[in-house]
C-alpha cells in the first residue's frame, strides 16, 4: 500500500492529500487545513525512520487509536512501508472490549490520543500483557523481540487487522493483506458510470470512522489511487453537514443509511443544490426517501454492498442505470464476481425469492481481494468459506434483470407464523412516523406465532403515563398497518431512552436481543397484538 502512496506522491506532490476542516480541527485541537502529497511523504518518511530504528517491521502489529485524525493515515503508511500491520481501535471501546482486542491481536505497541493512554494501559494489565502506549508525536520505545517475519513486505503481507463490529457476538479479527487494500482502490477508481473519477481532481468527504473498512480501505485507497484529497470529519454533524460539503469542495461523499434520513428532516432551502458533489456512496438509505433525497439535493446515492471480509473482492454497487431507486437495489454483479442466492438447504433460489447471498471472485482465485482469515479462528474461516463460496449471512433477492436487492441480515429476520419479516424493513417504516426519534426492531417469543415483532421506540416526546404510552403505541402500529402487511406491524411497542448502537451507528443486534426480554416484561411495554388482523 505504501508503494501505491509513493507513486501518487511522486505524481501529485503539490496536490492536497488530506484535509481537516475548522470544525473537526476544533474538536481534536489540531491545525485545520490541507496536507499535500509531498508534505505527507516527508512526514511518513520521518515516522518510518523512527519506527525502523526501534525495530518495528515485517509482521509486528501496532494499535492505532487516533480517531479520524490525519495522524492515523500517516502512521499507518509509515508502518506499512516497513511491513508492520496496524490494528485500528474503535475509540468507543471500554475496558473489557479493549482487553480482548489487546490480548487477541498481540499488538506490540499502541499509538493513541493522550486521553486514552490510561485506559489502554489498564486494559493491557487486565489482559496480562505489557503494552507500551505513546502519542502520535512521541518516539516509540524499542520493539519487543525479533521481527516475526523476514524479508521485505509484499502484496500478501498483512496490512491491517480489522475487527468486525461484533453486533451479535465477540468481534472477529479480519486479517487484511496489502492486496485487499490495493484491489479496493483499483475497483473504486475503475467502476465508472455515475462513479467516474478524474485523476488529481476528486475530493472525498467522509464522516465515517477510520477504524472501519469503509473509510480506511475504500475512501483512503480510492483517493490514493486517483491522486485525490480525503477530507476527514470527526463524525457526522447533521446541522452543519452541508456547510462542510461546501467548505470542503467535496465532489464525493460517503454515507450510511441514517444520514440521508436525518438530512431530509431539515427544512428545504435554496442552498440544497449549492454544492459540487457528483455522487454519494454508501448503503442503507431508506427506500422511501431515496428518490426524494436525490430530487431535492441533486445527488445520486449509489447504494452498495460489501463486508469487511469481502472488501472489494466481491462488492456490488448500483452505479449504472437502471438503478431501481427505492428498492434497496445494490446493482448487478460485475463480470469479476460470482453470486448465488440460496435457501436454508443450500439450493439455488429463483427470481424474487429471498435467500442468503453467497459470493466469490470469478476466475482461478475465488478469494482474491477478500480477507485472508479470521485471526486464530480457522473453524470460523472454514465455515464462512464452506463449499468454496463466502457465506455473507445477508438475505437478498435477485430481480429479473440480475439486480441484487438487499433484504436484511439473516440473523435479523423475524419468523412469525411461517412469515419471514425483515427488522430493517419495519424500522424503515417506523422511522417515518413523526413521533419516532429512533427505533430498533427485534423478535420476542410468542406462544402462538413462534416469534412476535417488538418495536423499541425512542420517542421525540416520551409519554409519561400508561395512557399516553397506549395512545402513542396504537398510533404507531396503525401507521404501520397502513404501510405494511399486517403481520409485519409491531405486536409489542416498548418505549426506551436509547437503543444500543455501534460506533458506526448500526444497531447492536446481540445486545438488543438481550435487552428486549427485560423490556417486554417492563412497565413501558404496550401489547398491540390485538391490532394485527388480516384484512378481509
Mind explaining what this structure looks like?
This protein is an alpha/beta fold. The chain folds into two domains: 2-327, ANL, N-terminal domain (Rossmann fold); 417-531, 2-Layer Sandwich (GMP Synthetase, Chain A, domain 3). 31% of the residues lie in helices and 24% in strands. The strands form six sheets. An eight-stranded mixed sheet has the order 2-1-10-9-11-12-13-14, sandwiched between helices. α1 (2-11) runs antiparallel to α3 (37-53). The mean pLDDT is 94.
SSE map:
Blueprint lengths: L1 H10 L4 E5 L1 H7 L4 E4 H17 L7 E5 L4 H13 L2 E4 L6 H11 L3 E4 L4 H11 L5 E2 L23 E6 L9 E5 H13 L12 E4 L6 H14 L2 E4 L8 H8 L3 E5 L1 H6 L15 E5 L3 H11 L3 E5 L10 E2 L19 E6 L12 E7 L11 E2 L3 H7 L5 E9 L5 E6 L3 E4 L2 E4 H8 L5 E11 L3 E10 L6 H18 L8 E4 L13 H12 L4 E3 L9
Parallel strand pairs: 1-10, 3-4, 3-5, 5-6, 9-10, 9-11, 11-12, 12-13, 23-24
Antiparallel strand pairs: 1-2, 7-8, 8-17, 13-14, 15-16, 16-18, 18-19, 20-21, 22-23, 24-25
Helix pairs in contact: 1-3, 3-4, 5-6, 7-8
Amino acid at each position: 500500500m505504501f508503494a501505491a502512496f509513493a507513486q501518487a506522491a511522486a505524481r501529485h506532490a503539490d496536490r492536497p492529500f488530506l484535509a481537516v476542516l475548522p470544525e473537526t480541527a476544533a474538536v481534536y485541537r489540531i491545525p485545520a487545513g490541507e496536507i499535500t502529497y509531498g508534505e505527507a511523504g516527508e512526514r511518513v518518511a520521518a515516522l518510518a525512520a523512527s519506527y525502523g530504528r526501534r525495530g518495528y517491521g515485517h509482521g509486528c502489529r501496532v494499535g492505532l487509536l487516533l480517531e479520524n485524525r490525519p495522524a492515523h493515515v500517516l502512521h499507518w503508511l509509515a508502518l506499512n512501508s516497513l511491513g508492520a500491520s496496524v490494528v485500528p481501535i474503535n475509540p468507543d471501546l471500554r475496558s473489557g472490549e479493549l482487553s480482548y482486542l489487546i490480548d487477541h491481536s498481540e499488538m506490540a505497541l499502541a499509538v493513541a490520543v493522550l486521553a486514552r493512554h490510561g485506559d489502554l494501559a489498564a486494559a493491557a494489565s487486565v489482559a496480562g500483557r505489557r503494552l507500551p502506549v505513546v502519542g502520535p508525536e512521541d518516539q516509540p520505545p524499542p520493539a519487543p523481540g525479533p521481527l516475526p517475519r523476514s524479508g521485505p513486505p509484499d502484496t500478501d503481507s498483512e496490512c491491517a487487522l480489522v475487527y468486525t463490529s461484533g453486533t451479535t457476538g465477540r468481534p472477529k479479527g479480519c486479517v487484511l493483506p496489502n492486496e485487499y487494500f490495493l484491489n479496493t482502490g483499483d475497483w473504486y477508481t475503475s467502476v465508472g458510470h455515475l462513479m467516474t473519477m478524474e485523476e488529481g481532481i476528486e475530493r472525498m468527504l467522509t464522516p465515517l470512522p477510520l477504524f472501519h473498512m469503509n473509510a480506511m480501505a475504500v475512501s483512503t485507497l480510492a483517493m490514493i489511487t486517483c491522486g485525490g484529497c480525503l477530507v476527514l470529519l470527526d463524525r457526522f454533524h447533521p446541522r452543519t453537514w452541508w456547510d462542510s460539503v461546501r467548505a470542503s469542495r467535496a465532489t464525493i461523499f460517503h454515507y450510511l443509511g441514517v444520514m440521508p434520513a436525518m438530512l431530509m428532516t431539515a427544512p428545504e432551502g435554496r442552498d440544497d443544490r449549492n454544492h459540487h458533489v457528483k455522487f454519494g456512496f454508501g448503503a442503507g438509505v431508506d427506500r422511501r426517501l431515496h428518490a426524494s433525497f436525490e430530487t431535492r439535493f441533486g445527488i445520486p446515492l449509489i447504494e452498495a454492498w460489501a463486508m469487511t471480509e469481502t472488501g472489494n473482492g466481491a462488492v456490488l454497487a448500483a452505479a449504472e442505470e437502471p438503478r431501481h431507486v427505492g428498492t434497496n437495489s445494490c446493482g448487478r454483479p460485475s463480470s469479476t464476481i460470482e453470486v448465488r442466492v440460496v435457501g436454508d438447504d443450500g439450493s439455488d433460489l429463483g427470481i424474487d425469492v429471498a435467500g442468503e447471498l453467497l459470493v466469490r471472485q470469478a476466475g482461478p482465485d475465488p478469494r482474491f481481494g477478500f480477507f485472508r482469515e479470521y485471526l486464530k479462528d480457522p473453524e470460523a474461516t472454514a465455515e464462512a468459506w464452506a463449499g468454496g463460496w463466502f457465506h455473507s449471512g445477508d438475505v437478498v433477492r435477485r430481480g429479473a434483470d440480475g439486480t441484487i436487492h438487499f433484504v436484511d441480515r439473516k440473523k435479523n429476520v423475524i419468523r412469525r407464523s411461517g412469515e419471514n419479516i425483515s427488522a430493517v424493513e419495519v424500522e424503515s417504516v417506523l422511522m417515518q412516523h413523526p413521533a419516532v426519534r429512533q427505533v430498533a426492531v427485534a423478535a420476542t417469543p410468542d406462544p402462538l406465532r413462534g416469534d412476535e415483532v417488538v418495536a423499541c421506540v425512542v420517542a421525540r416526546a416520551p409519554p409519561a403515563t400508561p395512557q399516553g404510552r397506549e395512545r402513542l403505541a396504537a398510533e404507531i402500529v396503525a401507521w404501520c398497518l397502513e404501510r405494511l402487511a399486517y403481520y409485519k406491524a409491531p405486536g409489542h411497542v416498548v418505549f426506551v431512552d436509547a437503543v444500543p448502537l455501534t460506533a458506526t451507528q448500526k444497531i447492536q443486534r446481540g445486545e438488543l436481543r438481550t435487552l428486549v426480554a427485560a423490556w417486554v416484561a417492563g412497565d413501558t411495554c404496550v401489547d398491540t397484538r390485538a391490532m394485527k388482523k388480516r384484512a378481509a
